[in-house]
Structure formats: C-alpha cells, structure tokens
Amino acid sequence: MKKSHIIGLVVIAAAIGIIIATAGDASSYVNFDQAYQMSTVGNKSSIHVVGELKKDLRGEITGLEKSPDNLSFSFLLIDENKKEQKVYYNEPMPPDFTRSEKVVVIGSYHGDTFVADKILLKCPSKYQEKKLNAKI
Known about the structure:
The protein is of the alpha+beta class and 136 residues long. Helix content is 22%, strand content 32%. The protein is built from 2 helices and 7 strands, in the order αβαββββββ. Strands 2-4-5-7-6 form a 5-stranded mixed beta barrel. β1, α2 and β2 form a beta-alpha-beta unit. The longest helix has 21 residues. The radius of gyration is 21 Å and the shape is extended. The termini are far apart. The relative contact order is 0.15. The model has no long low-confidence stretch (mean pLDDT 85).
C-alpha cells in the first residue's frame, strides 16, 4: 500500500470515531416527569426539557427570581404535559429571556429542583416575517 492510502484510511477512521463519540451526546426532549425518573435511576447525562415560561392572565412572567448580584436566577417552566417545575440556572439571565416563546433547558435534577447547565431560547421576533411597504 502507498503511504497516501494509509494516511487516507487513518483520516477516515478518525472521522468515524469523532462521529460516534458525538452521537452519544445526542438527546431527545423529555418532560419533567421523565427527567425526574431518569435522574432517580442514576442517569448522569444531560437531560433536555422543552417548555414555556409561566405567565399570568396579563401575559406577565411569574416565578422569576434573580439573585442579588444578578449572577444566577430561577424561574418556573411548564412542560408539554402542563407540569410546572422550578428551574435554577447558575449564570446571568440571557438577553431576551423574557421574550422567549419556548425555552429548552439542558441539565439534571438536584433534589426537587431542575438545575440547568444550558438554556436555549426561541424568540418569536427572529421567526416572524417582516412586512415591507413598497410604493409603486
């Protein structure tokens, strides 16, 4: 075999190894009941839960609590099964958090609180079409 063929095989093997290693981190969305069951059986991987922020009748977010130094906060999230859960995030609140349509929290349970390691936001302003007024 030529030296270039061997190098090509090594590169292909490395690429396959990287794909297999990253595929193990993939996770599907679960609700809070499933996430709690996963944590009680000793699942240490990150769990993805999607939901909406709890709002009152006027559309104002309820249950949002910031730390005095604004370096962490907690909030109430309602999953697809309408279960309400307190979520704690040990980072500053992301920009546009209160304007989010959907929130994905990635983390695990610590006692009765879901502790998020990451928060992903879907803001409605990014996905709405803008009207253009063109005069003819």
